[in-house]
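Sample intake sheet
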Amino acid sequence: MPTKKNQVKKEMPPTPTSAKRTFTFSIPKNIPLPKSWTPILMALVIIAAFVIGMLLTKVQYLEGQNGTTPGTQQAVAGTTQPSTAPSAPVNVGIGNLPVMGNANAKVKVIEFADFQCPFCEQWFKTVEPSFIKDYVDTGKVAFYWRDYPFLGQESTDAANAARCANAQGKFWQFHDYLYNHQGQENSGAFSKTNLEQFASDMGLNTSDFNSCMDNNTYAKDAAADLADGQKAGVNGTPTVFINGVPVVGAQPYSAFQQAINQALSK
């Protein structure tokens, strides 16, 4: 015999929403569709082109393409061979920072670099020690360092700081200290506060140093170096001129030996 529950269910009229139980769906032929999808497709193409353009710009920035402006250049990665040298040496000045080694040496080596550049740090740690031992300390080469601060504000501040240290006779010591304490680009590693702390750690006169930093005393000198580097064709760091002939990037030591020995043999 049916239960009361079943009786109630049986007596209830069909619900108007019972049609929702159907799971198939088709578009009636008499419903008009858009005449053309062209405007939508064009919009999608424009968006895709914009995204691709942004990605290509980022890749070019990271690879340091030739012909970019100084603000978008990137440090030049090392390769296995020196870059192709021009037919004639480039006329590039030695700047106004102190020489390391014999100023009257037959060969002059001039490095354009940025204190934030990771490849400059690589050159400093993997090439410079042997280079100094074999050529600078033996009096064969005069070594000069010139600013090429293009990676941001902390590059400019670090360049000014090194020159403030130079005013106290400690340029090369501060130069080494910066490369030994390099951090990510414009991450605060070379903030003015940290640079002033570096000077204190090195035993410099902090009152004079801090005043020099606050006044950006040597910012114009660093900018002049950058301009000279651009005129000489520098478009990435490190770029090292050996009697005017450039070797670009964090090349292996053998590449510099070859170029220096060739200059010494002339």
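Comment: Strands lie at 100-101, 107-113, 141-147, 239-242, 245-248. The radius of gyration is 33 Å.
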